[in-house]
Amino acid sequence: LETDNHDDILLELKIPNIESFYYRNVHLWYFDSTTIQKTANKSGFSNVSVTYRHNYDLSNSFMWAMQGKPTGCGKIRLFNKALDSAWISFIEENGYADLVCAKMRKK
To answer: Among 36, 39, 63, 66, which is most buried by a count of CB atoms within 10 Å?
Structure first.
């Protein structure tokens, strides 16, 4: 299961305009690692394992901060693949990725 992460780095950094972009009618509920585990357990699942997957490079976060809107990846060529890889690793390891992912078993 994958869904938008309520602990997304852009929300944590309080980037201008991110909340109006993030909280849309597309999603009725928002989850972080705690709420996705609780929901899975209450729904009859066990062995819930949570990971994170981030789909955007460092330039995306910088552009959000500078322009207050999404611009996509690869907009700042100064940021190379090594820096983007380190950024994504940091984001995923610390639970700030755009997606929270859960693997579980039905009880």
So the answer is: 36
Whether the CA torsion 19, 28, 87, 82 is positive or negative: it is negative
- Considering the entire predicted model, what is its pTM? 0.90
pLDDT in tens, 27-63: 888 899 999 999 999 999 999 999 999 999 999 999 9
* Enclosing H/E stretch for 9: helix 9-12
SS3 27: coil
φ/ψ region of 5 (left if φ > 0, alpha if ψ in -120 to 50, else beta) reads beta
pLDDT at residue number 47:
95
What is the C-alpha separation between 98 and 91, in angstroms, rounded? 9
Side-chain half-sphere CA neighbours of 102 within 13 A: 22
Q: Does 6 score more than 80 pLDDT?
A: yes
CB atoms within 10 A of CB 80: 9
